[in-house]
Structures are given as C-alpha cells and as structure tokens.
Amino acid sequence: MSVIKKGDQVKRRIENMKRGGFTLIELLVVIAIIALLMAILMPTLAKSRKMTRAVMCAAQEKQWGSFFLMYTDDFEGSFMGGRNIAGQNWWQVLEPYYKDRKLLCCPMANNPKKQSKDGYGNYGTWGPDWFYGYYGSYAINAWICNPVFKTGQTAMYGDNLKYWRSTNVKGQTDIPVLADSWWDQAWAEAFDNIPPYPGWWDTGTGDDMAHFFVMRHDGFINMLYMDYTVRKVHLRELWSQKWNRLTDMEDGPTEYDFPPWLQKL
Question: What global pTM score does this model have?
Fold first, then answer.
C-alpha cells in the first residue's frame, strides 16, 4: 500500500470542499451584497417608472388632441356644448373618436377602485360612481365649450362671453383644453384660491383650479393646449394660464402667496 502524506490529504480535503459549493458565510455575503444593490437601485427604478408613466400620459394627451381636432373639424371648428348646459359630457361626445376608454386615465391614476371622492385626489379617478360607469383622470377646461343659452337663462359660472366656443380664435398655443385632474371638468379662474393641499377634493362649486392641483408628476401636470401641443405645467403655473376669453392673469396669486412647500417644489 502506498503511504499518503498528510500534505496530500489536506489538499484533497480542500478540493472536496471546493466541489461541495458555497459555504454558509459565503452565501450570507452574497445575499447581503444583493440586498445592498437592491436598496440602491429601487429608488432609481421607482423614479424611472414615474418618468415613463409621465411620458405615457403626455402621449395620451397628444392623442386627445387628435380626437378634439377630428370632432371640431366635423362641427365647423366648434366644441361640444358642455354637460351643465347642454348635457354633453365630453367623454361621451368624443367616444366615437377614441373608442378605448382606457385613454381617459393618466397611467398614474387608472384604478377605478380609488376614486377621488374617497380621498384619492392625486391618484384617483372621477368615476365610475356618478358617471354612468365611465371613469378617468383627465379634465377639460370647461371654458372651451360652446353652450347655447335659452332666453333669460343665466350663464354657468360667470359671463357668457368667457367661453372660447371654437378653435377659430387667436393664441391657441396658450389656451388649455385638457389636463391631469381629479374631476372631469373645471371652470378654472386666475382668481381661484390656492387649495390647502394637492388632491384636495371639494364638492362645492367655484375655486375649480383645485381640480388640476394634483401631485401626479413630481410637482407638474401634463396639459393639452388648443394648438394640440402638450406641455408640462408646474402647479404654481396653473394660475397663469389663459383659461377663458376674459382671464386677467394679474388676478392670480404672486410667488409669495404660495405656501413655502410649493415655493420650494
């Protein structure tokens, strides 16, 4: 029999250990490294997802521009009459053009189980309750509508002359048509009060700027204009939009009127 030296035995044991796989300590080290990498990457991935959804939202609003364009082309440039005066919900009137109801929702707010009225203002939808099963998270600027008032009928939310009514107007690049919102329409005014917080839900009328005051895209919302371009609008910039024909931007708040958190945002 050949004599096996101690040195050879040690080498064989080491080789057997290598063939046996990782030790417990090695596995724990690998798991710890993976956990550390995940902790570093997760915020970046979350931010990337939000940015992707914001881009998708802007792309969808661009599609809405096409739907409004097709509708106004069919009606000699005129917009719909509007719900409160003519009973014409924009999301029903335009349905022959868009067909897929999923386009009514911003990708950041598309869960009908989280309705704005239930406290989900920033990421909630305006239906399906009260809206015949429809739900969405975009709103039109109700001043674009073309209501026809009966003799002696009082104009809704102010002067009849405020409504844009059609695309046959100047300055289309500054006139909002549709934007991120927790309600389906708004008669926003430059003199509207600053909401106490983003996503503030109020069933009363007036101060409709609150409908667009949502923390959905890191302090910005996407807004479609009458020239059918889409731009990011900061929450502080909402009061400086040309909402209706008689909008006086000097009626809006100054930078110092905004709460400190909004000034820093």
Answer: 0.81
